[in-house]
Amino acid sequence: MQSPLLAHTAGTGTDRFGLQNPQLLRVVLDGTSEVLARSGAMVAHVGKIAFAGWTPPTGNRRDRRREPDVLDLMRCSGTGTAYLANLAQHLHVLPLNGEKLVVTNTYVLALDASLDWHAVAVENGDRIAGVGSRAVEFSGTGSLVLMTSGRPLVLPVEPGRYVYGDADAVVGWSSGLEVQLQAQTSNTEAWRRRGTATEGWELSFTGQGYVIVQPSELLPPQRVPRG
To answer: Which InterPro entries match (predicted)?
Structure first.
């Protein structure tokens, strides 16, 4: 059979994280370390790879009666290649080497198990569709893989200059920025998921760093409620 479809064969890269295409992540496991990935993100794998549930180490667990896990992850271990994706969202591999990055938790696809992270509260964020009640600050050495709906925009933030992003569109930002959640309207409709025809909620950023924004003000596809 001859078809352009059959030209989309698997890549041969050896990096831990690589993009098979803009919407499909290739993860190479060598049997010596684990990768953490969004639960249910595996679409294919080659070799002896195990996928198991993950819970925080005992010392880092929170009281589950008071708040849920900030990330819903699974452990990927073994030897071979795993392919991860989530509803054809665009994927981005970010190597961290001591830097810190805050990300809205719904946009995390995978990460090196060696990375450290902790929850960061966003004031009133539980009422805003895209922000959620928690963001996550990542640090350490390793790679983090993010998802966006379309190609993102990265805006620099400089001292004395405010940068604003729609609360439904902001994916992440540099750790250390001052972040404030504010309404663009006094209309009570702003508290609803999509608000009115006017702009509703936005995040303002000041300091030194950058903000990552996706070209969509909708909920991430994996969180669209069923009718």
So the answer is: AIM24, AIM24_sf, Trp_RNA-bd_attenuator-like_dom
